[in-house]
Write a structure and sequence with these properties.
Distance between the termini: 41 Å
Radius of gyration: 14 Å
Largest sheet: 9 strands, mixed
Order of helices and strands: EEEEEEEEEEEEEEEEEEEE
Structural class: mainly beta
């Protein structure tokens, strides 16, 4: 039996969003998100409405890229990480597994955020370990 090409998911408020499987990595991309064909969206990952994923970015298995978030070229999001609404991940930046990036946060170009780290909403992370250990 062939897999469906599109999936509808109902939000808590009753709105429906339509997702399609990304050809590179098999993650789910909402129809109003923009993902470069060279980007890899891992299995079980979600890219929500309005998000923008640039060339050669990589999103790990089970990660969630929230609405209107942006991943610049060559950025890497670890497995099960969450990039909050409107957050921007700089070019070549790396977000560790299970890290949580708050809404509107900005991770500058080349920054490395360790696994299990929480970066609060609105923060500008410049380098090294930023934020606090996730609970």
């Amino acid at each position: 039996m062939a897999r469906k090409k599109r999936i509808e998911i109902e939000a808590d408020d009753g709105t429906l969003s339509t997702y399609r499987y990304h050809e590179n990595g098999d993650g789910l991309v909402e129809e109003n998100a923009t993902v470069d064909p060279s980007a890899r969206i891992g299995p079980g990952a979600y890219v929500d409405r309005g998000a923008r994923i640039a060339r050669w970015a990589r999103v790990g298995e089970g990660a969630w890229i929230d609405e209107d978030a942006e991943l610049l070229p060559n950025s890497v999001i670890g497995s099960a990480a969450h990039v909050g609404r409107g957050a921007v991940i700089g070019q070549g930046a790396s977000i560790g597994a299970r890290a949580k990036i708050g809404a509107g946060a900005r991770i500058v170009d080349g920054a490395r955020i360790e696994a299990d780290t929480y970066v609060p909403a609105g923060t500008v992370a410049r380098r090294g370990r930023t934020g606090r250990q996730a609970a």
